[in-house]
Design goal:
By secondary structure, the protein is an alpha+beta fold. It has 13 helices and 26 strands. Helix 8 packs parallel to helix 9. It is globular and about 70 Å long.
């Protein structure tokens, strides 16, 4: 098998899975009508509150929650934006500022803002306030770095604009980089006109949605296929790619089957993302516990049985666990402070080999991270940037049954699962004239917000679906009865 991008589209949710040889590597969801991501959006904001004691400000960008911005970023903004008249030497309440969302809001905190604007293209990132050339740190080959830097210099781009060469530019031609640069320069010229005309607070630029972001950032030459199960989305993707990735359009396919994620064995792997324990092939396991302040990952020997010394046993389990931990960090999009508790090892050489394995496997991660090292007790402390809300944050809520000691799915998540379960049930029980779907009342309430999908299922399978609210049911329970309930 090979690397694929799979896209599942439902009326209220889009899900993207990046799969390598049948194994789920990355997974993202977006519910645009409920919790649309703001990261990448550019706003003309207005300073609402100055926090001089910490050198920061709350900025009104036209949303319910004020954004958080460090004042030093305003003071060091380049003069290239002076013509927009949104900066002044003296920072004060009511001042207009151009900002970009760099981190989603979490809990009671508003979005994190930056005045250092960056607009991503396919191969380059345009930096209007930083007139310098940078190369992605993930491009490690020095000859390739020199080649790309030379190409950028030969393009004779505007000297008042900066550019960062992205990892996707690896091996790309001068013509391809020039086309991307011209698109970004033209876009920035249009945005400057919008800035002049827009009153604060106001939206200046909206980042691509989940599907187009993944295509721009992850649909590289090593991806053999992109499969989408929506004809509307299929046509939109092809239009987008004909502009930016014409050479990959032939790899986009419309799924003709019934259930893309189920038939590709993705649904089962998605469900495992939310499990605390992850078992390894050796029968050892790791425990992943996200807390409010940090993520704790513990390595346990479990059912590992081999005739080895205690040191060799610990080393073997730790090495296997390090590979899986790097995979889980990326798959679950874990961020903030992460503490990994490996099994204790006495040999310093073993500790250093383990650390190298962890770093080598984390090298595939696009998020920024920093590893402090490994202690003699087997503890590894690291940080990883948290930009978007995790899949768990989007899919679960604090459990009302256990008062916050655990988590259960959101009513919307169960409602969407119920629609998928209905379709599967009806495919397996053909010619069924009537059935009853029983759900927790809060789940049923969410389901009724999307009556079109229910009617569509009834028409497709020629089945009458009766709905029953049962307060005795757990919020995650889905009951289907192939007859009327008396």
């Amino acid at each position: 098998m090979s690397k694929e991008i799979l896209i599942n589209v439902e009326p209220q949710e889009k899900r993207v899975a990046i799969v390598n040889n049948g194994r789920l590597e990355e997974f993202y969801i977006e519910r645009p009508h409920i919790d649309k991501t703001l990261v990448g959006n550019i706003y003309k904001g207005k300073i609402d509150t100055l926090l001089t004691n910490i050198g920061a400000a709350f900025v009104d960008i036209g949303l319910a929650k004020k954004g958080f911005l460090y004042l030093s970023e305003i003071e060091t903004a380049f003069e290239s934006l002076e013509e927009t008249k949104i900066y002044s030497p003296e920072i004060k309440k009511g001042q207009e500022v151009l900002v970009q969302v760099v981190k989603e809001s979490f809990g009671n905190k508003g979005p994190r803002l930056s005045s250092n604007i960056g607009i991503a293209g396919r191969y380059l990132v345009l930096m209007p306030q930083t007139p310098q050339i940078g190369i992605s740190r993930r491009i490690e080959d020095e000859d390739e770095r020199r080649r790309l830097r030379q190409i950028i210099l030969e393009l004779k781009l505007p000297k008042d604009l900066g550019f960062i060469v992205r990892t996707a530019s690896l091996g790309k031609s001068k013509k391809e980089l020039l086309k991307d640069a011209q698109f970004l320069i033209k876009l920035w010229s249009r945005l400057k006109r919008i800035i002049q005309k827009t009153s604060a607070p106001g939206l200046i630029y909206e980042e691509y949605d989940l599907v187009l972001r993944v295509i721009r950032d992850s649909f590289t030459d090593d991806v053999s296929r992109l499969i989408v199960d929506s004809k509307t989305e299929f046509l939109r993707i092809r239009r987008f790619m004909k502009t930016f990735l014409r050479h990959l359009v032939a790899r986009v396919e419309l799924w003709r089957g019934q259930d893309l994620f189920e038939e590709k064995d993705i649904e089962r792997q998605i469900n495992k993302i939310f499990e605390t324990k992850v078992y390894l092939k050796s029968k050892a396991y790791i425990v992943i516990e996200p807390t409010e302040g940090l993520v704790v990952i513990d390595v346990n020997s479990g059912g590992f049985h081999k005739d080895l010394s205690q040191e060799e046993t610990a080393f073997k389990i730790n090495c296997e666990a390090a590979v899986e931990i790097a995979h889980q960090i990326r798959l679950r999009d874990l961020g903030g402070i992460i503490v990994i508790d490996f099994i204790d090892m006495e040999k310093e050489s073993h500790r250093q080999q383990l650390l190298k394995i962890l770093k080598d496997n984390l090298a595939q991660d696009r998020a920024k991270y920093d590893i402090l090292g490994i202690s003699k007790f087997g503890l590894v402390e690291m940080t990883r940037e948290r930009i978007h809300k995790t899949v768990q944050m989007l899919s679960y809520q604090v459990c009302p049954y256990c008062q916050g000691r655990g988590k259960v799915k959101l009513p919307l998540t169960t409602a969407l699962s119920a629609l998928r379960e209905l379709k599967r049930f009806l495919r397996e029980n053909k010619n069924l004239k009537v059935l009853t779907l029983s759900l927790n009342p809060s789940v049923l309430e969410e389901l009724l917000k999307d009556k079109i999908s229910l009617k569509s299922i009834e028409r497709k399978f020629k089945t009458q679906i009766n709905l029953l609210a049962d307060s005795a049911l757990h919020i995650e329970d889905i009951k289907i009865f192939p007859h009327r309930l008396s």
